[in-house]
Design goal:
alpha/beta; Aspartate Aminotransferase, domain 2; Aspartate Aminotransferase, domain 1; 2 domains; 7-stranded mixed sheet; 8 helices; globular
Length: 388
């Protein structure tokens, strides 16, 4: 089949969005039949459901026994903001930014918290900053996996065990898809609507004993909104980490998250989730290696994400096109695939270089990736014909 020929097979699930992400294979609304709808989350049944999310998440991720895990408001964004406002300011902070969300945390720390001692280590989309330059006598804030750039940190080897500051990792597109070295991490956040395809509005927060000690020994100079407060009278509010949520959670979303966790356990736990995601990337890597128009935004395989896979059009094909025209070209590809019902929501993030972004996490079936790639070739050929 030539690239311009219309493929005959379509992905069975066209949901390749990088958030909210695809539901687990076989999901239907019937998964929510156990929801205690209309009941209080403070009732025995509600607390039991919330505790089940915490217990199953802890077991799947292999959290150390002395790490706390809690459900917090406002998705991953809420979890990160709670941490930035509650923990930072005790010492200087190194902020790492190589994609949109990391850059957002830099802006919050510099312009909202206005901390006096902030050092920013930046890199462009598709790259990492020099991790050897990080000063671990300071607090360190970074994204484990750059959702909008397709770049991840390679491992935790660059983080020393004898660090003085806290390591704070926004891991929303890494948790349940990558092996997080917990002994290297003091704070980890994620959201339900990412790797396991849950419903939104809820964030997850993991704290090491070192992070708890900071919370109980340090009082920020600024007032904390109630929704950010994790201590009372100088002590951690333990209820947050036992299912007593700060706000009212959606019990439908809770039930959906339980369903996703049970599915994850059933397919083989964290090793299987990682293998499914890496297998999807391998299919895309083989295709890119043979492509005459597509390449990875993350050129280095050692730091390439296997969840949020970012593709760009080879620069030589864009000669003579202005930046706005390049963005329009890529958006036309995404729009055509959306119209065909083949792939939804795969345009690159608004701040990222023009291209496509494919979610390849564990809820995506390998066969759907195989079926999608010829459609990418077809859509590119259709759009490119308009520019000749």
């Amino acid at each position: 089949m030539t690239r311009s020929q219309r493929p005959s097979l379509r992905p069975l699930c066209p949901n390749f969005s990088s958030g909210p992400c695809a539901k687990r294979p076989g999901w239907t609304p019937a998964a929510l039949v156990g929801t205690p709808a209309g009941r209080s989350h403070r009732a025995k049944v509600g607390k039991a459901k919330l505790a089940e999310v915490l217990d199953r998440s802890r077991a799947l991720l292999g959290l150390p026994d002395d790490y706390r895990i809690g459900i917090v408001p406002a998705s991953d964004t809420g979890a990160v903001e709670m941490v930035l406002w509650s923990l930072l300011g005790a010492r200087g902070v190194d902020m790492l930014a190589w994609e949109s969300f990391g850059a957002g945390w830099v802006s919050d720390v510099q312009k909202q918290l206005k901390l006096p001692d902030v050092r920013v280590l930046r890199a462009g989309y598709g790259q990492l900053p020099d991790l050897s330059q990080v000063d671990f006598s300071r607090d360190v804030v970074f994204t484990w996996n750059g959702t909008t750039s397709g770049v991840r940190v390679p491992d935790g080897d660059w983080i020393p065990d004898d660090r003085q500051g806290l390591t704070i990792a926004d891991s929303t597109s890494a948790a349940f898809a990558m092996d997080l070295p917990w002994s290297k991490l003091d704070v980890v956040t994620w959201s339900w609507q990412k790797v396991l395809g849950g419903e939104g509005a809820h964030g997850m927060l993991v704290l090491s004993p070192r992070a708890v000690a900071r919370l109980e020994s340090y009082q920020p100079a600024w007032p904390l909104p109630k929704i950010f407060r994790m201590t009372s009278g100088g002590k951690l509010i333990e209820g947050i980490f036992k299912g007593d949520t700060i706000n009212t959670p959606s019990m439908l979303a809770v039930e959906d998250q339980i369903d996703a966790l049970v599915w994850a356990e059933g397919v083989g736990g964290l090793p299987a989730l990682i293998a499914r995601s890496r297998g999807n990337l391998a299919v895309i890597e083989d295709w890119v290696a043979a492509s005459d128009w597509a390449e990875f935004l993350a050129g280095d395989p050692a730091v390439r994400s296997w969840t949020s896979v970012c593709l760009v059009i080879k620069s030589a094909l864009f000669l003579g096109l202005a930046a706005d025209d390049q963005a329009a070209f890529a958006k036309k590809i995404a729009a055509l695939l959306d119209k065909e019902g083949v792939a939804y929501d795969i345009a690159s993030y608004r701040d990222a270089p023009a291209g496509l972004r494919l979610w390849a996490g564990a809820t995506i079936e390998r066969e759907d990736v195989v079926r999608l790639l010829p459609w990418l070739d077809w859509a590119y050929a259709q759009v490119a014909a308009d520019y000749r």
